[in-house]
């Protein structure tokens, strides 16, 4: 679930290093509310998810408004969240969770764990949003060429801001589910997922849609890495071996994914490369081998001509962005 949320910022060429800490903070907050208050489980879920969304919104503002690099911004918020986890838990587990809350992560339907249904639903939703909605197409365009997307009128700041909210809510939901499965709030629960999640997201770019982060490939990669960890545990290996495996998996995934992502961006650009011919005092310029396919309002209100290049091999004109 965390990995499915992470692919949204990654699709826009941004990184969210706070996802593990958001999951841990959400799990700790929900556990504390269950033990310390008498409010309903549904209200606890709402409070926790809203809090997660707020953290994502803050991350997005730091990146798109304050223009802090996503690495630094999310690393900073992650450190603050770690302090929150330790302050709430006093660096100890919070036991005594109610049965109604625990059932969120342990309920079974005809022998199938409910977490499987969570993953299937989230995978379908993420796949549909990224592949079949204007939001997803614009997000991929931003990840391919942010400036070109901005110039043709895409609200890049709003979309990037939204991706961090999506990532945070997914991490918050995962934190709640894992806490319910464990049966107690653990201060070590969330941060340990950071490396495996990134490894799965990058490894997912080699599956289903090579060269592009995608929901189906990411879900498949999660289970591949999970099987590797399970095999290590069944062999009775020392605890540090799992950390070594996660680190190597991340390095291998990035090593495989980077060339494919670069190739994917070039392919995406060849499909609807956008050249903008501004009209004004500076006059206009043209692009050799390109054909005008329409006009649109630029982000600054100026009138621009959208030009799609001719494909050198087929001689056809590429399609402009929707």
Quick gist of this model?
With 322 residues, this protein is mainly alpha-helical. Helix content is 64%, strand content 7%.
Could you explain how this protein is built, in words?
There is one protein chain. This protein has helices at 2-11, 19-36, 41-64, 70-89, 99-106, 114-132, 134-144, 146-151, 156-182, 194-203, 215-234, 239-272; strands spanning 108-109, 112-113, 275-278, 290-297, 303-309. With 322 residues, it is mainly α. The chain folds into 2 domains: 2-191, no CATH class; 273-309, no CATH class. The chain has a 3-stranded antiparallel sheet with strand order 3-5-4, with helices on one face. The longest helix is centred in the C-terminal third of the chain and has 34 residues, at 239-272.
